[in-house]
């Protein structure tokens, strides 16, 4: 096809691009026995990744979507491990329900805590939130250490978030931290098996559920 024809024919309207993407993704989900809402979460994650190989490795706790919707409608806050996650979440729509998004990884006090305890800043940031994590949504898209710390807080300090979206990425600790998340039964979760993941994937999972409640973008 001539280059001039390609430039003329590509889809230009954002919602048309999104809708066509969802049509392309749909066949990869048809044999997974998903609910309509689960399809929306899976589709947005795959869309964000540009990778249909995510389809069989996405793992949703049976109560994850309902718990996330209830938490958002109640005005809960979202606590993240890195700024990329905080930035990507649709804060304008979340604010309609009374919620905010917080990240403390760059705070000076968190830096001092990390140095003092010889831990990562993301881990220190989660620790510093303390009781604020109760009733919240926790979104981790980068640091396995942050997810391990949240699970420790749940286990040892009896912190009880409503949902944990734990999708850190990488080759050191990511797969193990997500396996530990899926193994626990106290807190509903959204995760992805193995080394894949990242901030855009965690953001996609949360925004998918926000858009179930308010899709006025």
Task: Write a structural description.
By secondary structure, the protein is an alpha/beta fold. The protein has a single domain (3-213), classed as Rossmann fold, CATH 3.40.50. The chain is 52% helix and 9% strand. The protein has helices at 3-9, 14-25, 36-49, 64-73, 83-88, 91-96, 108-117, 121-129, 144-156, 174-183, 199-213; strands at 58-60, 78-80, 101-102, 137-140, 163-166, 189-192. The chain has a 6-stranded mixed sheet, sandwiched between helices. The longest helix is centred in the last third of the chain and has 15 residues, at 199-213. It is globular. The chain starts with a helix and ends with a helix.
Approximate shape: globular
Total tally of structural domains: 1
Supply the number of helical segments.
11
Poorly predicted spans: 3-8
Order of helices and strands: HHHEHEHHEHHEHEHEH
What is the name of the CATH superfamily?
A: Cobalamin biosynthesis CobH/CbiC, precorrin-8X methylmutase
Distance between the termini: 35 Å
How does the major sheet shape up?
6 strands, mixed
Counting helices, strands and paired strands, the structural category is alpha/beta
Q: Count of DSSP E strands?
A: 6
Tell me, what is the CATH class?
Answer: Alpha Beta
Helicity range:
40-55%
Beta strand %: 5-15%
Strand order of the largest sheet: 1-6-5-4-2-3
Radius of gyration: 18 Å
Average per-residue pLDDT, rounded, comes to 93
CATH architecture: 3-Layer(aba) Sandwich
- What is the CATH topology classification name? Rossmann fold
Briefly say what this structure is:
With 217 residues, the chain is of the alpha/beta class. The protein is 52% helix and 9% strand.
